[in-house]
């Protein structure tokens, strides 16, 4: 485990996970939990916005696969509610336009699916370490 990983997990870190696919959501939940993170998982983007506990979230991981889940709209909504934590967008396809739109919305990373879990964990570790 890296120094960042160890440091990031000394205190409980809550991850907000928004993914429309039940199997993918459960898999990511288990991977994050096994790595020491507390995870709140949501099947619908609106459920994240309506959750009064979002302020506990240290990082958002959201899917972007319209019409099932619009991760960019979700982060813009959270930003409008003054949630300012880092975020990672999971995209089914890679495009420069999507990356530019995601970065403009406030996403730190755009990760194309499928991906190796250690890549996502490395991103989360580095983002929560810097806050």
From TrEMBL:
UniProt-listed GO biological process terms: phosphorelay signal transduction system
InterPro entries tied to this protein: CheY-like_superfamily, Sig_transdc_resp-reg_receiver
Signal sequence segment: none
Ranges for domain Response regulatory: 14-128
Protein name: Response regulator
